[in-house]
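Structure in, sequence out. Go:
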């Protein structure tokens, strides 16, 4: 659910350049009913779903540049054909300035086979399984990273998909740039003290992953910790979101991330009404 920083291409020189089949040159395995196009206008931004091979090439290009540091290194993976891909364009130029991928997880089997489940044992969530919208690979062009309207437009698109799909939970990996937990100790301590998920519902650790426990004693200054939390994760927390009790070091994307979830039923009523209105613009 987070936004990793751009990568140095030298870190991936051993990775062969390729164009994934998920680029749209073949039909997505997402059910046809879920791939119907729609568009919204928010100021000068157009929000919609990737539909054409051109759209998917734009998704790949932006993600390659931001996450891999080079257009020659693909960021597409086996999950992309299973997902709906949000696209944000400048209405004036038609240029793609942001993208995100989402996947509706309808049951335990899909939950356990999700991207997020590679890093976290989601078995505790299976006990009370409800439709979940997995959000990931949020990617914004450098020139628009600090633009609040861009994040507002992404949120509008996610809200639209959540409403249309009947999802009861948003979930994913919320990322901090740099795979060094010590660098983010203040923010992780803040999350531990204030936003750990409900008892028995948070994900368990995967033994094969490089995990770090969130410990409130790491630092006592919660204000400092909050400043270190990425803006997108702060937004999720303001909606009543919660995080796992541990972080995972993702050396492939050079990030530290936590599992993050927003339960639709727990979003404050005023915020929920605002999101519903935003999704129907």
């Amino acid at each position: 659910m987070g936004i990793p920083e751009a990568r140095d291409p030298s870190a991936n020189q051993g990775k062969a350049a390729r164009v994934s089949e998920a680029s749209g040159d073949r039909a997505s395995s997402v059910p046809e009913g879920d791939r119907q196009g729609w568009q919204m206008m928010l100021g000068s931004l157009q929000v919609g779903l990737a539909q054409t091979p051109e759209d998917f090439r734009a998704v790949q290009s932006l993600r390659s540049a931001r996450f891999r540091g080079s257009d020659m290194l693909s960021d597409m993976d086996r999950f992309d054909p299973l997902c709906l891909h949000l696209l944000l364009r400048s209405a004036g130029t038609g240029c793609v300035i942001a993208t995100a991928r989402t996947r509706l997880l309808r049951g335990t089997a899909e939950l356990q086979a999700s991207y997020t489940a590679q890093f976290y044992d989601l078995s505790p969530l299976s006990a009370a399984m409800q439709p979940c919208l997995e959000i990931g690979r949020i990617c914004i062009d450098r020139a628009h990273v600090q633009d609040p309207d861009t994040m507002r437009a992404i949120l509008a698109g996610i809200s639209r998909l959540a409403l249309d799909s009947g999802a009861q939970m948003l979930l994913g990996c919320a990322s901090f740039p740099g795979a060094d937990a010590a660098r983010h100790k203040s923010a992780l301590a803040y999350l531990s003290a204030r936003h750990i998920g409900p008892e028995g519902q948070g994900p368990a650790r995967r033994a094969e992953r490089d995990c770090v426990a969130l410990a409130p004693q790491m630092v006592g200054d919660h204000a400092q910790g909050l400043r270190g939390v990425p803006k997108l994760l702060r937004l999720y927390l303001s909606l009543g979101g919660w995080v796992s009790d541990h972080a995972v070091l993702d050396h492939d994307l050079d990030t530290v991330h936590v599992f993050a979830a927003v339960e639709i039923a727990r979003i404050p009523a005023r915020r929920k009404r605002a999101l519903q209105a935003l999704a129907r613009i």
